[in-house]
Structure formats: structure tokens, C-alpha cells
TrEMBL record:
The modification N6-(pyridoxal phosphate)lysine is found at K181. This is DegT/DnrJ/EryC1/StrS family aminotransferase. GO terms for molecular function: pyridoxal phosphate binding; transaminase activity. Belongs to the DegT/DnrJ/EryC1 family. SUPFAM superfamilies: PLP-dependent transferases. InterPro entries: DegT/StrS_aminotransferase (IPR000653), PyrdxlP-dep_Trfase (IPR015424), PyrdxlP-dep_Trfase_major (IPR015421). The active site is at K181. Keywords: Aminotransferase, Pyridoxal phosphate, Transferase. One of its GO terms (biological process) is polysaccharide biosynthetic process. PANTHER family: PROTEIN RV3402C, TRANSAMINASE.
Length: 364
């Protein structure tokens, strides 16, 4: 079976060498030496000032909202994984959805300003598929209206914009290190900021608000373990090679798919991409469903990612029309992409897709 992704696993001996140290120290969690080492190496790799390694990519969004005292309206994207909206709702915020650009599917800055009210406190945008938002436009709007900017940068590890890690932008950026990501720690995530005071607050929030027996603030348990840090230390040095391998698979798709029959998101100028996903957009949902059925019949499992448009969630705050997102979310499909995917498998996937779209596009 070919799944939409396949997690990279390092050499088992390399991982077990770290485990031997954990067994010797019997320091399993609570800001252990491997966690501190991983944080430092990630800061160096990304070129960022403060980075906190946490349990997952959702809790760091919640921590960002809490740390900046954001409790009211947040302008956000309807085209993202549900965690983006869930974090807002969980923290008692009101998501206000701005529609997406029709070319790159990131939040449309031209749609943001008209949604700002006296209750707006922040903009939470997602760098979709690891492709940077229109960062300068969003920042200019935020500064004009005194808003915070939080980036859900779950897909961006290893990607850069204008020579800087995409994670270095915004008041806060967050990332996911789930097993499906370009860089992973099995489960995990991080929160990044340049703000010294905010970083200190996040440090306390991550660990119940205390250091030893001294209590400074509220907090939760967002700590990660030495076992997860060990996986990260194994995977991190391989990231450039993993991205290069993903780029090769990406190029195979590009050269084989019938791009006259499908649409691909445009890359934002200035982005050095990490090839996190390979999304394609069909002419209709019915075509997409035919492709999904044909692929699954061959034990190939793509993913409708992102679906549905988050402004249509039944538990969100009323329906706010976002026609571009609602349309794209019905027609977008992520094809299998991972470093070890074979060229012959890409040939087979592309042939299935091309056959379906060609037949359905033939004149009657």
C-alpha cells in the first residue's frame, strides 16, 4: 500500500545509542539534556532567537493565544487543518474567517482589513503546504491596527522566505513535528518568538508555571520527553537530504502529470520550498472523487487536505462565506509524497490521475 505519506525513521542503532544515555541518566522528561540539546540545535538550524520544544503543534497555538492575552476576535484562514480553528475555539476566541487567495491558497491580505473591528486582537494565518503567506502585507495591516500576528507554520520546517526561516516571522510562529512532517519527533511541536519576555512566559506556561518549587504563573503540561527529543536529534541532521529527496519526487510528478487538466498552487516569490506536500486541484469534486476511487482500487491512499473549508464546520461560530476556500477545499487532493517513494510508483499514480482527468475532460 502507498499512503499519502510515510514517516522517515533513522538507523535504529543511532536511535538506541540515545536511549542508552536515557537509561543511564534515568532522566525521562522535565527539560532533560536531550531536549535542551535539540532546542539549541533547532535554533541554530533555523536561525531563530527563542524556540520551545513542546508536545504537539496544537498546544503551541493555544499557548501563543494565552501568552498574548488574546480572548476576542482573531482573523484567520478557513483553509488549514482543523487544529488552527480548534485552538481559537478552545481558548474562547472568536474566529473571523478571511477568504484565501485563488493562486496560492494562503489567506488573502486584501480580505483582512474590512473584517477588523474594535474586538479584533490578532491575525492567525497558516503558511499553507509550507508556502509563505504574503508576510509583508499582513505585517503592515497588523502594525496599522495594533494587532498581533501568529503564524501556524506547521508545514514550514526547512523552508525559508527571503533568506530567513519562515518560522522567524510574526510575533509568534508555531510548528508541528508530527510523524508525517518533513522533520519529526514522532509527536511534537515548537513555538518561536524574538520577544524575550514572551519567551520566558512561554517557558513557564510549558511546565505548569513553576520552576522547582517556585511558582510564577498559570501553566499547563506542554513538556516533551527525552525519547521524542532523541528522535529529533537523529532526524534533524538528515533534513537537507530529506528535502532534496522530496524535491526529486516532486519533479517526477511535475514532469508526468497532465498540468493542462489540473491546477497546482503557485509558490510565493522569495520562498525556498521544503516540498512538504504535493496538492493538485481538479475541475470538480466529482472528478476528485473518481480519482480517489481509482487510486484506492490500486492500494494508493491520497488525502483530501484541506477539507472541509473551516468556515463550514458545524461547531464554529456561524457560517461566514469564503467562496474561494469553499470551492478549492472540495477539489484539492494531496498525492503521496515522501523521500522513499519510488519513481515507478509516481509513474503509476500519475498515469491513473491523467487517465481520469483526460476521460472526464473529453468533449461529448
Amino acid at each position: 500500500m502507498i499512503n499519502v505519506t510515510k514517516s522517515y525513521l533513522p538507523d535504529l542503532d543511532e536511535y538506541t545509542n540515545y536511549l542508552k544515555g536515557i537509561w543511564e541518566r534515568v532522566h525521562l522528561t522535565n527539560d532533560g539534556p536531550l531536549l535542551r540539546e535539540l532546542e539549541e540545535k533547532m535554533r541554530e538550524f533555523l536561525g531563530v532567537k527563542h524556540l520551545k520544544f513542546c508536545t504537539n503543534g496544537t498546544i503551541v497555538l493555544q499557548m501563543a493565544l494565552k501568552a498574548m492575552d488574546i480572548t476576542k476576535e482573531v482573523i484567520t484562514t478557513p483553509f488549514s487543518y482543523v487544529a488552527t480553528t480548534n485552538a481559537l475555539l478552545w481558548e474562547g476566541c472568536t474566529p473571523v474567517f478571511a477568504d484565501i487567495r485563488p493562486d496560492d491558497y494562503n489567506i488573502d491580505p486584501d480580505k483582512i482589513e474590512s473584517l477588523i473591528t474594535e474586538n479584533t486582537q490578532a491575525i492567525m494565518a497558516t503558511h499553507v503546504y509550507g508556502n509563505a503567506c504574503r508576510i509583508e502585507q499582513i505585517q503592515a495591516i497588523a502594525e496599522k491596527h495594533n494587532l498581533k500576528v501568529i503564524y501556524d507554520a506547521a508545514h514550514t520546517f526547512g523552508a525559508s522566505y527571503n533568506g530567513r526561516s519562515i518560522l522567524s516571522y510574526g510575533d509568534v510562529s508555531t510548528c508541528s513535528f508530527h510523524a508525517t512532517k518533513v522533520f519529526h519527533t514522532v509527536e511534537g511541536g515548537c513555538i518561536v518568538t524574538d520577544d524575550d519576555a514572551l519567551a520566558e512566559k512561554l517557558q513557564f506556561y510549558r511546565s505548569f508555571g513553576h520552576r522547582n518549587d517556585d511558582y510564577y504563573s498559570i501553566g499547563i503540561n506542554a513538556k516533551n520527553s527525552e525519547f521524542h527529543a532523541a528522535m529529533g536529534l537523529c532526524v534533524l541532521p538528515k533534513v537537507p537530504a530529506l528535502i532534496a529527496a522530496r524535491k526529486q519526487v516532486f519533479s517526477w510528478y511535475d514532469s508526468r502529470l497532465n498540468t493542462e487538466r489540473i491546477t497546482r498552487p503557485a509558490l510565493t516569490p522569495g520562498v525556498d520550498y521544503n516540498y512538504a506536500y504535493y496538492p493538485v486541484v481538479f475541475d470538480s469534486e466529482s472528478t476528485l472523487l473518481r480519482v480517489v476511487d481509482a487510486l484506492k482500487a490500486q492500494d494508493i491512499v491520497p488525502r483530501r487536505y484541506f477539507f472541509p473549508s473551516l468556515n463550514t464546520l458545524p461547531f464554529s461560530v456561524g457560517h461566514q462565506p469564503c467562496p474561494v476556500s469553499e470551492d478549492v477545499s472540495l477539489r484539492v487532493l494531496c498525492l503521496p509524497l515522501y523521500p522513499s517513494l519510488e519513481e515507478e510508483d509516481v509513474d503509476r499514480i500519475a498515469a491513473i490521475v491523467n487517465e481520469i482527468v483526460s476521460v472526464l475532460s473529453e468533449p461529448v
